[in-house]
Amino acid sequence: AEQPDPMAGAPQAPLTTTNVWRESCTLVGIGSTVIGGIFGALLGPVFYAFEAANPAHADLPMRQQLRLAGRDIAQRSRTWGKNFGVIG
User: Fold this and answer.
1) Which of 11, 24, 31, 83 has its CA 20 to 30 A from that of 40?
2) Strand, helix or coil at 3?
3) 34-60, pLDDT tens digit by residue?
4) How many other CB atoms are there within 10 angstroms of residue 37's CB atom?
């Protein structure tokens, strides 16, 4: 004969904020996208440091080199943020 399910009459855990995040696919997807985007944006400057310097900027004044490097770092942060956001 069939065995009775031991969990059939077990009380359910109340839905807390943590449980709602774990149980909702939409919230998990949104959260992982946001966290992935932040993580990628933080890693943008790290990955930029490992790229080769642009020799065309060597003859420019230091202030302009720093401005161009800052723009490149911001662009890399956006790119990696988007990549990690999609993967997240």
Assistant:
1) 24
2) coil
3) 988 898 888 888 888 887 776 777 788
4) 20
Q: Is 40 exposed, middle or buried (0-12, 13-18, 19+ CB in 10 A)?
A: buried
Residue with tokens 């359910």: 12
Which two three-digit tokens encode residue 51?
Answer: 């790229």
Q: Which pTM value belongs to this model?
A: 0.62
Between residues 88 and 37, which one has the greater pLDDT? Answer: 37
d(CA 24, CA 16): 12
CA-angle at 74, arms to 63 and 68, nearest 5° = 25
44 and 76 Cβ atoms separated by less than 8 Å:
yes
DSSP output for 7-73: TTTPPPPP--HHHHHHH-HHHHHHHHHHHHHHHHHHHHHHHHHTSPP-GGGTTS-HHHHHHHHHHHH
Q: What is the DSSP letter of 5?
A: P
